[in-house]
User: Fold Glutamine synthetase from Microbulbifer elongatus.
Amino acid sequence: MDKITQWLAEHSISEVECLVPDMSGNARGKFTPTDKFLTEDSRLPESILVQTVTGDYVDEHNELVDPADTDMLLVPDPDSIRLNPWANEPTAQIIHDCYTRDGKPHPISTRNILKFVLDKYAEQGWQPVVAPEVEFYLVKRNLDPDEKLSAPVGRSGRTEKTRQSYSIDAANEYEPIIEDMYDFCEAQGLDVDTLIHESGTAQMEINFLHGDPLKLADQVFTFKRTVRETALRHGIYATFMAKPMEDEPGSALHLHQSIVDSETGKNIFVNDDGSENERFMHFIGGMQKYTPGFITFFAPNVNSYRRFTPEMAAPTSLHWGYDNRTTGLRVPDSSPQAKRLENRFPGADCNPYLAIATSLACGYLGMMNKVTPSEPYTGDCSSEPITLPRTQEHALSLLAECPEAVEMFGDTFVRAWAAIKRDEYEEFNRVISSWEREYLLLNV
Assistant:
């Protein structure tokens, strides 16, 4: 707390946002006056960890958390403290870790899940390094859920109608929004790197500099809040839905990942002569073998599975390849020290803590169990048969058959996740879509 106290004083902070990432990766918490924050413990009901995306509590609530709806203890992470640049008064935002009443890391906290996985790497003397790439859409304000989303008006007074991959001028259409976004990111110390216009209409991608997985998860968590706030200030929305528009590509959260030796800093995926070693192949093999059972953490929502569509810049199978963006697992061209694997399965709607934890867990299991990968794929992989789950229900059935998920994340967390996602699926399944009314009403 000494570090936090000093920082708050230096920045004349009058209010603190005590933040906890929920299952969806959104911010829960409370606003606290600085003097109260420094003198009293922060607490939140642990039941917020078992809420669905609709705000409902799962039927298994009393089996997963205390039926008395008790509090969990929040412990601020000083490395996560940042200014809130859009607040009206000097405000800090601090991400907190969740602990049970007896002082143990809370088993349903998604930030703790990532820490559990990182501890397994630390036991082997390994330090993972990740670099996320986050895609999102800018869309016109949408007040009617039945109305389709569309691109907002740009500086020219027009909306995009065609694909504008990597177009500088198309990105400049939204320059006022992008400039404010970068200003907010700089004020918060986010390590954002390049921005590009992706292939969808008003679809952007921001890349982060590589670094520590927990710190990068915190940054992606903060970045999502930042982009949404920036867009609202310009009278539009920013969405991280995996597939917000039926005729446009989905949005992903690609993860570049490598592992270095904790003592030497050398990349453990290469030999002394710079060539790839068996450990790298086993990491790839683990990603191939275990991703199906863990896929629900890469694709957490009913909408997520609409992204896994052929010819829409998203993977549909478990193949890997060298510098091949049509495969789900890509090995980019790089120097030996930067040897890494890009995981293209996660959608932009995923919880960054769980996506990073899952990706590293699959690779870890591959290395520990010496899983041999398939041969690298060459050519266009999108023509291959679809082997990924296409529904949330299917993904949850694969999770139920994956003991490795319990091994890496713990039984309580896996049961809580499955309960939440089953409830969300059933809620979604009750809604009759316009497609059904259009084509089935009078034709069946």
